[in-house]
Automatic annotation (TrEMBL):
PANTHER family: ADENYLYL CYCLASE-ASSOCIATED PROTEIN. SUPFAM superfamilies: C-terminal domain of adenylylcyclase associated protein (SSF69340), N-terminal domain of adenylylcyclase associated protein, CAP (SSF101278). Belongs to the CAP family. One of its GO terms (molecular function) is adenylate cyclase binding. GO terms for biological process: actin filament organization; cAMP-mediated signaling. It comes from Microthlaspi erraticum. Residues 230-242 have a biased composition (Pro residues). InterPro entries: Adenylate_cyclase-assoc_CAP, Adenylate_cyclase-assoc_CAP_C, Adenylate_cyclase-assoc_CAP_N, C-CAP_CF_C-like, CAP/MinC_C, CAP_C_sf, CAP_N, CAP_N_sf. Residues 223-264, 279-320 are annotated as: Disordered. SMART domains: CARP. This is Adenylyl cyclase-associated protein. Residues 243-258 have a biased composition (Low complexity). Residues 318-455 form the C-CAP/cofactor C-like domain. GO terms for cellular component: cytoplasm.
Length: 478
């Protein structure tokens, strides 16, 4: 009986081998394992692999064609993107032939794709080039390829389609900067940015939606996942594995309540017997602080000088005053500059002042919005604001309005002197978590002095007729 069954199996295997030699598609050895040509066969017949090859040839090819017209770092990073898509194609082929590994094996399995991603990230580091937005957009977009690591709803990742869309949203910030910068300057850069976007949305997103909406499907009857290909002989070896797991069996075992009780009772027993404190040194009266002559409590002049001679300096970036993307004036980290002037501005632009100290800024013209953030002893003189003037996280600032401003907002600020013109007396002033706010308004006569009004910072809240009524606190002097 057994010999007949073996002969039948032999005949079936021989028949399958004959089919494979005639283009049948599956190449098996007598042991049932995939042969060396299995990967090529899957790539040429599987619909999902063929669709991925179309994605590479069309969408990646379009991005490469646009990058070749630009050259330089843009071409280099686009080639890395193409390399990453090729690496993912090989991983998709291997997944169809391989059993699903454990979590440690997954990290090793996806090493080729991770290495290419790290190569793209390295191109964004160091000194910023003129093509930083291109490099950052391409580098950040590669995180979308991590959809291939989705193993289920409990893996900590979004579903594959959502992951691709979310990852592209991160990269789109820099891609839009490329579009804005080169929209009216160079059509090649605009074409590159559009090609990169269409590579992921709708390109990769639609591919994942059609073939891997629930993630990749591993081959339960395939071969075990192998380690990634080792580098050349001269390459450094990977770091050794830790000697013990952080979640080892010994550390994860909870101690029993009886052991805890025995341990604590033993401690109290030792304390009561004096065995723990027997080796401690006795403190005599002359060693006590109140009796020591060298500890009178007075602080010496030398000690005061050493304490005050080391002021703490906050880390600040380089000073900056520039128009970004034609829409936003950035004035940052200016210290001791009394002649800062913005003269060429329009109502569509905003002004953002950050980290300035002991400086004066003049804005000559109408702008949409002005914000002062984390500034100290800063003075700002402006003409007109379309939306609002905002003061946030500042100390001792002075602001003068020479035209009109619908709204002035003061938040988390200590010390603010606001000068209003006759045209801005109807300005709405909003304050929150702020103190020492004074508003100067013109006098009744043209030659009259400025009149100062202190805005209240204390309020009474009285519950009356089912609701709270809030009134500012008024102080009367004797």
């Amino acid at each position: 009986m057994e010999e007949a069954l073996i002969k039948r199996l032999e005949a079936a295997v021989t028949k399958l081998e004959g089919l494979s030699s005639n283009g049948g598609g599956v190449i098996l050895s007598r042991g049932g394992d995939f042969s060396a040509g299995a990967g090529t066969d899957v790539a040429s017949t599987d619909p999902s692999i063929l669709a991925y090859e179309d994605l590479i040839s069309q969408c990646v090819g379009r991005a490469l064609s646009a990058a070749e017209k630009i050259g330089g770092p843009v071409l280099d990073v686009t080639k890395v993107v193409a390399e990453a898509f090729s690496a993912q194609k090989e991983l998709l082929i291997r997944i169809k032939q391989t059993q699903k590994p454990d979590m440690a094996g997954l990290a090793g399995f996806f090493t080729p794709l991770n290495d290419v991603t790290m190569k793209a990230n390295a191109m964004t580091e160091g000194k910023r080039s003129d093509f930083f937005n291109h490099l950052k957009a391409a580098s950040d977009s590669l995180s979308a390829l991590a959809w291939i690591a989705f193993t289920g709803k409990d893996c900590g990742m979004s579903m594959p389609i959502a992951h691709v869309e979310e990852s592209w949203q991160m990269a789109e910030f820099y891609n839009n900067k490329v579009l804005v910068e080169y929209r009216n300057k160079d059509a090649d850069h605009v074409e590159w940015a559009k090609a990169i976007k269409e590579l992921y949305v709708p390109g990769l997103r639609d591919y994942v939606k059609s073939h891997y909406a629930l993630g990749p499907v591993w081959n339960a009857s395939g071969k075990p996942a192998s380690a990634p290909v080792k580098g050349p002989p001269g390459a450094p070896a990977p770091p050794p594995a830790p000697s013990a797991s952080l979640f080892s069996a010994e550390s994860s075992k909870p101690s029993s309540s009886s052991n805890q009780k025995q341990g604590m009772s033993a401690v109290f027993q030792q304390l009561s017997s004096g065995s723990v404190t027997s080796g401690l040194k006795k403190v005599t009266d002359d060693m006590k602080t109140k009796n020591r002559a060298d500890r009178s409590g007075a602080v010496s002049a030398v000690e005061k000088e050493t304490r005050t001679s080391k002021p703490a300096f906050a880390k600040t970036g380089p000073p900056k005053m520039e128009l970004q993307m034609g829409r936003k004036w950035a004035v940052e980290n200016q210290i001791g500059k009394k002649d800062l002037i913005i003269s060429e501005c329009d109502s569509k632009q905003s002004v953002y002042v950050f980290g300035c100290k002991d400086s004066v800024l003049q804005i000559q013209g109408k702008v949409n919005n002005i914000t002062i953030d984390k500034c100290t002893k800063m003075g700002v003189v402006f003409t007109d604001v379309v939306a609002a003037f905002e003061i946030v996280n500042c100390n001792n600032v002075e602001v003068q309005c020479q035209g009109s401003a619908p709204t002035v907002s003061v938040d988390n600020t200590t010390g603010c002197q606001l000068y209003l013109n006759k045209d801005s007396l109807e300005t709405a002033i909003t304050t929150a978590k702020s103190s020492e706010i004074n508003v100067m308004v013109p006098g009744a006569s043209p030659d009259g002095d400025w009149v100062e009004h202190a805005l209240p910072q204390q309020y009474n809240h009285l519950f009356t007729e089912g609701k709270f009524e809030t009134t500012p606190v008024s102080h009367s002097g004797a």
